[in-house]
C-alpha cells in the first residue's frame, strides 16, 4: 500500500500545493488534488473580476463626465 510506504517519511506541507486534501487524494487516486483550493481560487478570481467591473462602472458613471465638463469649459473660454 502507498500509505504504508510513506510511514516515517516527512512530507512538506503547503496550503495550496500539498495540503491534507491533496495528500488523501494522492493516497486514494495517485494524484494530489484539492477541490477546496480550486474553489477558493475560482471565488477569488470572481471577486476580483466583480471589483474591477464595479470600479469601471463607477468611473464611467461618476468620473467619465469630467472630460465633457472640460470640453464645455474650453468652449466657454473661447467666447
From TrEMBL:
Any GO BP annotation: N-acylphosphatidylethanolamine metabolic process
Chain ranges passing through the membrane: 43-62
One Pfam family this sequence matches: LRAT
A Gene Ontology molecular function term of the record: phospholipase A2 activity
Listed GO CC annotations: cytoplasm
Superkingdom of origin organism: Eukaryota
Domain LRAT: from-to ranges: 1-36
UniProt keyword annotations, A-Z: Hydrolase, Lipid metabolism, Membrane, Transferase, Transmembrane, Transmembrane helix
Matching InterPro entries: H-rev107_PLA/AT (IPR051496), LRAT_dom (IPR007053)
Gene3D superfamilies cross-referenced by the UniProt entry: endopeptidase domain like (from Nostoc punctiforme)
Keyword Repeat annotated: no
Family to which this protein belongs: Belongs to the H-rev107 family.
Protein name as catalogued: LRAT domain-containing protein
Organism annotation: Aldrovandia affinis
Amino acid at each position: 500500500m502507498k500509505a504504508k510506504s510513506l510511514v516515517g517519511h516527512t512530507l512538506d506541507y503547503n496550503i495550496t500545493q500539498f495540503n491534507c486534501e491533496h495528500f488523501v487524494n494522492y493516497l486514494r487516486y495517485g494524484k494530489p488534488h484539492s477541490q477546496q483550493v480550486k474553489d477558493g481560487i475560482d471565488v477569488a478570481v470572481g471577486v476580483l473580476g466583480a471589483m474591477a467591473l464595479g470600479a469601471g462602472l463607477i468611473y464611467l458613471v461618476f468620473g467619465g463626465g469630467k472630460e465633457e465638463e472640460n470640453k464645455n469649459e474650453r468652449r466657454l473660454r473661447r467666447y
